[in-house]
Input
Amino acid sequence: MGDRAAKTTLLDAFARVGKALGSGKRLELLDLLAQGERTVEALARAADLGLTTTSAHLQTLRQANLVATRREGTKIHYRLAGADVAALLALLRVVARDRLPDVEAARAAYLGPDTEQVTRAELLRRVEAADVVVIDVRPREEYDAGHIPGALSIPVEDLADRLADIPVDQDVVAYCRGAFCVMAHDAVRLLSSRGRRARRLADGMLEWRLADLPVATAPGPQG
Output
């Protein structure tokens, strides 16, 4: 039989990851970092947190080796420590959705009425056939860090003013960060209200990357 103390030490080591994930705000920071590298200041703005609070959450994630850093001058840039962390984030959300009854109610309250969707496989077919316009409705810095090849960058807050950038005679597919991202839903609702044929990608950039599908990037610094 194995040594009980050694087994406890091993299980406690596993639990360190669980403890690091035990905060909605830390999960939000991981979700943001799944879109691309960011500075502490950029993360604080995106998550609507103070700098001190953001730094404390990031230190907890770093102590569990879920995030990594690099320094550029006086700024520290954070990124996910690896694709396995992104996969863990995605799986955690799926398990919570499937196992906790209140998650569905919270999801519906946040995302609002459901909107029509397309799968990744269908989107790939339609992109190859060139019969659809794909729009990335995330903030521009996330688009620059990685996007579906050929997608137009139209942040959701700019969409109403940029309808002229979208051909009126083609179907539109909007996507954002992931399966629980509200921006694509908002974009589809807006486009539909303006008479456009619009659907959303069933998930988003997190799942697209995890499926090892092509990702394009824009030149220039991030964060």
Remarks:
- The two ends are 51 Å apart (CA to CA).
